[in-house]
Structure formats: C-alpha cells, structure tokens
Amino acid sequence: RQKVAMQKGLADAKLRFIDGVLTADVSEAVGFADRVGYPIYLKPNDGGGGQYNFIVHSERELREKFKTIV
C-alpha cells in the first residue's frame, strides 16, 4: 500500500488527510462528514478492490452511496 506516499502527495498539494471513522451507521457517517466538511472519501471496510469507493459532496449523496457499501 502507498498510504505514506499518498499522505505526502496530499500535503504537497496543500490538502488535508483526516483519519476516518469505521461505521455501519449512516447517521454516524453523516455526523462525521458534518464535523470535518465535504467532500469526503467513502469506501467499504472490506476493500472491494476500489469498486465501491466514492468521493461524496453532500449529505444526500453520502446517504445514497452509503447504501451501496453497507
């Protein structure tokens, strides 16, 4: 995995990396997004090979995409 390189790339681009939250509760995910701000990166815990990874820009979109990964 290239997590360290990805974090450096984000820092170089002046973007922030925030440790996420692991949850199966959409309300908790919405609360997290409200605290840190949109957009957020949403992905399933089991990986999925990148197939179900999303960048979401709103609560409505988060709720919609969350259904596909839980």
What is the succession of H and E elements?
A: HHEEH
User: What is the CA–CA distance across the termini?
Assistant: 23 Å
Strand order in the largest sheet: 1-2
Rg, nearest Å? 12 Å
Query: Which whole number gives the mean pLDDT?
Result: 87
Helix content: 40-55%
Q: How many individual helices?
A: 3
Give me the count of strands. Answer: 2
For the biggest sheet, the summary is: 2 strands, antiparallel
Uncertain parts: none
**Strand residue percentage:** 5-15%
- Tell me which oligomeric state these chains represent: single chain
Report the structural category.
Answer: mainly alpha
Shape: globular
General description of the model:
- The model has no long low-confidence stretch (mean pLDDT about 85).
- It contains 3 helices and 2 strands.
- The radius of gyration is 12 Å and the shape is globular.
- The chain has about 70 residues and is mainly alpha-helical.
- A two-stranded antiparallel ribbon has the order 1-2.
- It has helices at about 5-10, 25-35, 60-70; strands spanning about 40, 55.
